[in-house]
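Checklist before submission:
- one chain only
- standard amino acids only
- sequence pasted in full

Submission:
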Amino acid sequence: MNNNKQTLIEKNVIRLKRSIYLSKLEEYRLQGRPIVYTDESYINSSHTMPKSWSDETSKGCRLPIYKGNMLIIVHACSEKGFIPNALLIYPSKIKTGDYHNNMNAINYQKWIKEKLVPNLQPQSVIVIDNASYHNVTSEPMPTSNSRKADMLAWLRKFNIPYPEKCTKPVLYEIIKNNKQNHQEFVLDKILEAHGHNVLRLPPYHPELNPIELLWGIIKGKVASKNVMFDLKVVEELFRKKAESITIDTFRDVWRHVKKHEEKFIELEPKLDILTDNFTDIIKVEYSDSEYMDSSSDGELSGVEEL
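Returned file contents:
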């Protein structure tokens, strides 16, 4: 039921991850490290403009009623442009579901090793999102359903103390609390072996990834030229449009993302004040509700019934 006490507020864990990300990003920039953003996207063979102008002498193209086949796209860029020879485009083998279903850890790691790493500048920082295939661990962390022996083995491996006598739920809680500092991601190890580092975007922040804006620019240009609705033609159009992006466009996109970064940095002190105010309001309302509950129980003390 709707009421006037409902409000939308960001989870603290999301805010924390954003703050850590922006802090590390600034640190890497001060070190002069190249920042490289990566992302995966898709485009359908029927990707075109929804409307077009025409007169009585000619007819426009009829938009297909189906989306058509799909191309999966993987690329990386820096402030200076797309990383040379890093573009990967391949047709989807899955007809349904999210385009992420067409990518897996093996394919992504293969792209990293064969197309990205050979073309990176030394000591690059690779920014990635939180897709599951980016976060595959070399040794999976125990789950709540794991055997107790496996939980104990994981804790011993990382020299994490635990009570001598404790139950599986207690052990799992200890594992969760130490998860962040002891996860070994396969992707991170691959890149670190070549002198690079991985930086993960905070969840739900696509506006902090400039390549997201570049996808939109390129897809818009493809849509304006796609009249054949043929997958090979769409791939050719995409490649040409990606190559035609100018350095000025990259700089404009970077400035746009930097504005978002600055906005979030400036917002942090205000969020502290705002959340403190919410805390004070909640305390007051909770205190008032206790008072009302104790004094409005349907009986009047000291008064006898007539």
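Reviewer check: Helices lie at 12-30, 105-116, 148-157, 168-182, 186-192, 210-225, 231-243, 247-295.
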